[in-house]
Amino acid sequence: MTEYKRIVPCLDTKDGRLVKGIKFVDIREVGDPAEYAVKYENDGADVIVLLDISASLEGRETLLEVVKRTAKRLKSTPFAVGGGIKSIKNIETLLSAGADTISINTAAVKDPNFVKEAVKRFGGEKIVIAIDALRTPAGPSSSKKHIIQSPAGDFWGNVVIYGGTKTTDIDLVEWSIQVAEMGVAEILFTSKDADGTKDGYDLPLTRAIAENVKIPVIASGGCGHPYHMLQALTEGKADAALAASIFHYNQYSVKEVKNYLRGRGISVK
Annotated active-site positions, please? Predict the structure, then answer.
């Protein structure tokens, strides 16, 4: 059976509008998330992800109206929703509103038992764990962490929460292993360092996760060219590549990206 690689457009939203930032800041409005979702579905997206990027930071739930309106416009493309999800009730509400899967980030870090409860209640196939992280230089306190060796200096992946505004001391790979063992569907990894730069994904950190878990990994943060997706799916060993800027600003379409990958031996639908 062919294992298809997936291309995933991401709809970051704030105050109900589609936005895009750089390294989680410098947020700029793009348009209406529902309109872009329809565009990406028509163009062959494998999954569409909607993330309410300020919900956790502002201590509120995901904007339900946006989720309902977007889900209603989609015909068959799987629809994942995340942002500010911190209770079983939140998940129930969003699934009822049309979400196919739920992405949990900050709440999972603060209370891993919440993830276990969600998996037990809804099934692991409904739960995605989003993990944001940045590179941190390896030092004496990093001895027990998964260190990535680099000519420019060794580093490890440091998990960040609340929309990237709060740094933890949690190792990216260790956390990935932990959530994978809880039975969730997949991991969505976003590099804060690379986000919005269009310079390419953080391949070493993406690969470090993929090599240590047995569930699919979605690479996110930094895509500026289809070649970056090719790198993420090969060198990074990711199962899917998420992007926003190149799609939002019409630099490339989902169809063009898939044709590019197909021409280089990558199996895509």
Answer: 12, 132
